[in-house]
Write a structure and sequence with these properties.
single chain; about 400 residues; alpha/beta; D-Maltodextrin-Binding Protein, domain 2; 2 domains; about 15% strand; globular
């Protein structure tokens, strides 16, 4: 059972990025081995997989439900995919199941251009290669804020004060967009807010510590969002909120940095140049930004031939090269050489370099179980079926049952 944290410190470092510009180049070789990947569907993954497809014999499946499909797909023998897109929040089930392979030999063969902070190690072995950092941070309509004389919020209290002014002005459908879709997304909202109030997720004996004053405050803050958000918030995920921004329906949101580039896509956005980025708001004075830091990257399946693994990793290196970054600079906060941070990266960089710093998402089996329990139990709080205290008890009980079944608790 995987109980240790990943080596994340390097992967969330934003220092040492190379600055350059250039044009996209076609694949440097022809891939002759049929390969498939399964990853999330945001713009960065599209950019990387499009670059991989230039080499031929490659099929990319971009699916926001990838995290629920990967475990079974990679457990098949042979694996249904050779390449997987993961993050520090989704790699754990694959590690636990032993369905991804160490990459040290492939990095030695093809990874000469990789930076040290891209190499994600578990127990000393390279198990993933990070391509970008990600975090949820404040995105806001600068034009609306300027028109209404609103300063950029730095705390959640200021967010709600701004939301009240925006709602009263009636300039958008909803002042706040919220990624509170029942399940994983809603759980992540709590995971962001809770450490912002100084909460610790676990005790030393692996029991959960969320049934606490910080837990109550996190739930109360989440509930304060509801009067300013779409009534259909329990079906609102990142794509939903991204589209609300693009359609001019919302004024601000704590949204993933990886969605920033879509705001300036003239083919689908009516707010090009109007959405600005700032650090994630703090939950309490003197606290860290109420969010978590993430990396996204690539793993290679274990249940495939060595020939396929070799071809897959070589293809990944082609997709994650400097030419791809130069052609898609604004699609992500890249860890790949050639990245030049622009205005759309400002919020993530401010969040990642804040003092005190936002914590990395905990990549542990315990956290995976707790995240599931949060996703299952939080909807009843937002619908008013349970109060905050009863919700925390339900989360604690759900986690305890799952942790005992997993052998984490006796």
């Amino acid at each position: 059972m995987y109980l240790k944290k990943l080596a994340l410190a390097g992967a969330v470092s934003l220092s040492g990025m190379l600055m350059s510009t250039g044009a996209y180049a076609a694949c440097a070789y022809e891939n002759t081995v049929p390969l498939k990947s399964l990853s999330a569907g945001f713009e960065a993954w599209k950019a990387v997989t499009d670059a991989m497809a230039e080499c031929g014999n490659f099929e990319a499946e971009l699916d926001q439900e990838f995290r629920t499909k990967q475990p079974a797909a990679f457990a098949a023998n042979p694996s249904l995919y050779q390449i997987g897109g993961v993050s520090n929040g989704t790699i754990t089930p694959l590690l636990n199941a032993g369905t991804i392979r160490p990459l040290d030999d492939l990095v030695a063969k093809y990874g000469q251009n990789l930076a040290p902070n891209q190499l994600i190690r578990v127990d000393g072995k390279i198990m993933a290669v990070a391509m970008m950092v990600n975090t949820q941070h404040l995105m806001y309509r600068e034009d609306i804020f300027n028109d209404l004389g609103i300063e950029t919020p730095t705390s959640w209290d200021e967010v709600f004060a701004a939301a009240e002014k925006i709602k009263a002005a009636g300039v958008v459908d909803y002042a706040i967009g919220a990624t509170m879709k029942s399940g994983w997304n809603l759980a992540q909202e709590f995971v962001n807010m809770y450490p912002g109030f100084g909460g610790q997720f676990f005790n030393g004996d692996n029991t959960t510590a969320v049934n606490s004053d910080a837990g109550i405050k996190a739930l109360e803050t989440m509930a304060k969002t509801l009067p300013y958000a779409d009534p259909e918030v329990l079906v609102s995920d990142s794509t939903y909120v991204q589209q609300q921004f693009q359609q001019g329906k919302i004024a601000m949101s704590n949204l993933w940095a990886s969605r920033g580039g879509a705001m300036n896509d003239a083919n689908e956005s009516s707010v090009v140049g109007k959405v600005k980025m700032a650090a994630a708001p703090v939950a309490m004075e003197g606290g860290a930004p109420a969010t978590t830091l993430w990396w996204d990257g690539v793993v290679i399946a274990a249940n495939i031939s060595d020939e396929e693994a070799d071809a897959a990793f070589r293809l990944v290196m082609e997709g994650m090269d400097e030419e791809m970054v130069k052609a898609n600079n604004e699609a992500a906060i890249w860890l790949v050489g050639g990245y030049e941070p622009g205005p759309l990266a400002a919020g993530a960089i401010a969040t990642a370099t804040a003092t005190p710093a936002a914590p990395p998402y905990p990549s542990t089996t315990q956290m995976g179980l707790l995240h599931t329990s949060l996703g299952n139990e939080l909807p009843a709080f937002l619908t008013g079926e349970r109060d905050a205290a009863a919700t925390l008890v339900a989360i604690e009980e759900s986690y305890t049952t799952a942790a005992k079944e997993a052998g984490i608790l006796e």
